[in-house]
Amino acid sequence: MKNNLILVAMIMLISISVSAQSQDKKQTSGNKVEQQILTLNKEWADAMVSGDMAALDRLFDDGLTVTAGNGSTRGKTEEMNDSKPRPDLKTYFFNTENVKVRVYDDSAVVTGTAKWKINFGGKDIDNEIRYMSVYAKQKGDWRMVALHVTRPGQPMRRPPPPNNSPSDYRSVAVSEKPSKLK
Q1: Number of H helices and number of E strands within the chain?
Q2: Rounded CA gap, 99 and 113, in Å?
Q3: Alpha carbons 130 and 60: distance in angstroms, whole number
Q4: Which terminus of the chain is more solvent-facing, meaning fewer CB atoms within 10 Å of its CB: N or C?
Q5: Is the separation of the CB atoms in 106 and 113 below 8 Å?
Q6: For the chain, which residues make up each domain, given as ranges?
Q7: Is-contact 41 112, C-beta < 8 A?
Q8: Is the pTM here over 0.70, yes or no?
Q9: How far is CA 91 from CA 46, 57, 67, 94, 166, in A?
Q10: What's the number of CA atoms in the CB half-sphere (13 Å) around residue 59?
Q11: For residues 62 and 74, is the Cβ–Cβ distance under 8 A?
């Protein structure tokens, strides 16, 4: 009986150890992908400063969709055209901050803040955006498939609901009379 208890305890310890090693491998694998995505995020920022069109072409998927804070969208071609070096535009720096990566199998979501300074037509301009980019792994390579940018500090606005709409908890709560306790 005592030998059986020892055997059961050993089997449980081995199971726990194997499970922990499996979790460590998953976390290491996840961290490796996160590092790859962070590297791509840095390459994107560097290419924006240097105007490295070859790097941007490699980073951006052909089906890239960029959505601005006002809801307008553009594709890879428009984004590449906006990023081309121009004689009247100089980018001093393009930095990303508060970057977070979440990996989901063959896709990854990156959120962060981008700050950069440019000189446009002789005038220095500071810029800041919040961004979310989505990367997808295709044919072994990670490519940016979506980018959403917006100015920080814009509170989310919700249009007022129609009066007495059952989907609006505020109007229902106000319009209903409390029942009397008996």
Answers
A1: 4, 6
A2: 7
A3: 19
A4: C
A5: no
A6: 53-154
A7: yes
A8: no
A9: 10, 19, 22, 7, 52
A10: 24
A11: no
Closest Cα partner for 126 from 138, 118, 114, 134?
118
Domain 53-154, classified CATH 3.10.450.50, yes or no? yes
Tens of pLDDT, residue by residue, the chain (182 residues): 555 556 555 555 454 444 444 444 444 455 999 999 999 999 999 999 999 999 999 999 999 999 998 999 999 999 999 999 999 999 999 999 999 999 999 999 999 999 999 999 999 999 999 999 999 999 999 999 999 999 887 566 777 776 655 544 443 344 344 445 54
Q: What six digits make up the tokens of 58?
A: 């490699």
Cβ–Cβ < 8 Å for 114, 94: yes
